[in-house]
Amino acid sequence: MTTETFEITGMTCDACARQIEQALLRVPGVQAADVSYPKGTAHVTGDTIQAAVLTSAVIASGYGATPTRGAAVDTRKAPKHAPHRPGPLLRVPDRHT
């Protein structure tokens, strides 16, 4: 059994962490995935897991991932993930005729 640890970027809430966990659990060979929003980390355990494949799964979910063990994998930055809350309200100018 192998455990890989990653630094995760782009998370804005616990729902993001759950989304990444689900993406990692869909990767063949993964038996457990624990993603922490407060720590910005993911710990993945399984048989015959590869850091590059796990990183790709996280990136495909819209987040960034960097292995913390120094493996040579694709560490492209993911597109910025939109927050799960509405943005600020814009004030519309009053129309005086």
Quick synopsis:
With 97 residues, this protein is α+β, with helices and mostly antiparallel strands. It has two helices and four strands.
Largest sheet: 4 strands, antiparallel
Overall SS class = alpha+beta
Low-confidence spans: 70-76, 82-87
Roughly how many Å is the radius of gyration? 17 Å
The whole-number mean of residue pLDDT values reads 82
Sketch the topology as an H/E string, one letter per element: EHEEHE
Helix content: 10-25%
Q: What topology, given as strand order, has the largest sheet?
A: 2-3-1-4
Count of DSSP H/I helices: 2
* Counted beta strands: 4
Strand content: 25-35%
Distance between the termini: 73 Å
Oligomer: single chain
Shape: globular
Keywords:
single chain, 26% strand, four-stranded antiparallel beta sheet, alpha+beta, 23% helix, 97 residues
Protein described:
It is built from 2 helices and 4 strands; from the N terminus they run E-H-E-E-H-E. With 97 residues, the protein is α+β, with helices and mostly antiparallel strands.
List the helices and strands and how they pair.
Layout: E1 2-9, H1 14-25, E2 30-36, E3 41-46, H2 51-60, E4 64-67
Antiparallel strand pairs: 1-3, 1-4, 2-3
